[in-house]
Design a protein that fits this description.
Helix content is 46%, strand content 11%.
């Protein structure tokens, strides 16, 4: 009896001791830009997988102030959060804006964490890392990447008397193919168009890079927006629209296009387009028997075919309270995180009757290789599989937008120049001269201030 009482006392004492020792709480890392409520995205599965595999860190997706759900932050709100001393630990960031944020002291360089953890960034596609470098430092880790292939509808090619297995490789061939494919009715209204320069996801960058143009000087301080190669590229776009009857006529036809299930590429209203490579997801979902192909966009004769890519990243804002843990979050999200995300997305896709799950390309090459083996290699439809691989293989030939602290100004002014030229408000030279003056003015302002402060 005494022994039993003694054991009970020991148990009670141990229990009391355990209760008196506080359990070590996880370090909470606040992340802006991942919405676990987005149906079919796999985001919830990814968040759960991180938290299950990290006993010391909890990834906490947080609604961005002033926006609905778990939306990506806008620039003003992120800067306001940093200025108030209450930023998230991790933020979702369009890669081409990283230099803009970093140059204004809004981000934390991550080189110290890379060195401490001996983390090898060579696994990421080169241009995705280069986009995040500014002033000799790295300001984030790349998440995904896209490419912009040329897609062509082989049935439309056959109907126009073209070889369905041979896409155009030069600008001259693109013009000739478009002329053969395009049809108008008795009133001159389009029934079908071969190619529209601004339809899909092209922008002036596509034609500029194809023509060998550079938008900025190597040191990033001088605008080359109105260089001859840029003007030639915009002139090609303008001439193409004029060949079709003008931008207003083309856009009137384009305004009749419907999305997704009635996509004009699926219905044969457009024979070719250049767009981001996740278009294959839509094509496979709504018309898995579509006969089409993917290749690099055409270039001027004698110049190598190329394309351009965008994508997003994860960065650590200046003043983040848990920067060390935040680095582990962005490292995991950009390397291992896509695997549970795509598993969740694939389950949702296949449960709803889609034949294939097509993952989005990721910036981390080993992860991309995993996705190809796991999801793409098993696609039993040769057309779909080869189209998906066409977009993925284009990564090797792709370029990124220039790294610049005035990247958004550059983007906007090039878009304005394009519209001014195709609608005849200015010549290509005049439109790009105007854009050049705006961009150079902003570059001079930034670099003068930056040099004085540094």
């Amino acid at each position: 009896m005494k022994r039993t009482v003694g054991l009970l006392l020991v148990v009670v004492a141990l229990a009391a001791l355990m209760l008196s020792v506080p359990i070590q709480a996880k370090t909470q890392v606040i992340v802006w830009g991942i919405n676990p409520l987005q149906v079919g995205s796999g985001n919830k599965e990814m968040i759960d997988a991180f938290n299950a595999s990290h006993p010391d860190i909890e990834l906490v997706p947080q609604s961005t102030p002033g926006t609905g759900g778990y939306a990506t932050q806008d620039v003003a709100k992120l800067l306001a959060a940093i200025a108030s001393g209450n930023p998230p630990d991790v933020t979702w960031l369009d890669r081409f804006t990283a230099a803009q944020f970093a140059s204004r002291g809004a981000l934390m360089a991550i080189d110290q964490f890379i060195e401490i953890h001996n983390f090898d960034v060579s696994g990421y596609v080169d241009y995705t890392i280069d986009e995040l470098r500014f002033d000799g430092q790295l300001w984030g880790l790349p998440w995904d990447t896209d490419t912009r292939p040329l897609y062509w509808n082989k049935d439309v090619f056959r109907d126009a008397g073209l070889d369905p297995e041979v896409p155009p490789k030069t600008w001259d061939e693109l013009i000739a193919y478009t002329q053969k494919i395009t049809r108008v009715d008795d009133e001159g209204k389009f029934e079908r168009i071969g190619y529209i320069p601004g339809y899909g996801n092209t922008w002036l960058y596509l034609y500029a890079y194809a023509n060998g143009a550079k938008v900025l000087s190597d040191d990033g301080r001088t605008s080359l927006v109105n260089a001859p190669e840029m003007v030639e590229a915009l002139q090609f776009v303008v001439d193409f629209y004029e060949m079709l009857g003008g931008a207003e006529k083309v856009n009137a036809y384009q305004s009749t296009f419907q999305g997704e299930a009635n996509n004009p590429f699926l219905t044969g209203l457009v024979g070719m387009l250049v767009t981001v490579n996740n278009a294959t997801q839509t094509y496979a979902r709504y018309k898995p028997d579509l006969d089409y192909g993917a290749a690099l966009p055409p270039a001027p004769a004698g110049k190598p075919q190329t394309t351009w890519s965008g994508g997003w990243s994860y960065a650590i804002p200046k003043g983040a309270k848990n920067a060390e843990a935040a680095f582990e979050v962005i490292r995991w999200l950009t390397t291992e995180g896509p695997k549970p995300k795509e598993r969740g997305a694939a389950a949702y896709t296949l449960e709803r009757g889609s034949q294939y799950h097509i993952p989005f390309p990721y910036a981390y090459t080993p992860t991309n290789d995993y996705m190809i083996e796991e999801y793409v290699a098993s696609i039993d439809n040769t057309v779909v599989r080869e189209a998906v691989m066409g977009g993925l293989n284009a990564i090797e030939h792709s370029q990124a937008r220039p790294v610049s602290p005035v990247g958004e100004v550059l983007w906007v002014e090039l878009a304005r120049a394009n519209d001014r030229a195709i609608y005849g408000e200015m010549t290509p030279q005049q439109a790009l001269d105007y854009a050049h003056r705006v961009v150079q003015r902003e570059l001079d302002r930034f670099w003068q201030r930056y040099d004085q402060e540094n």
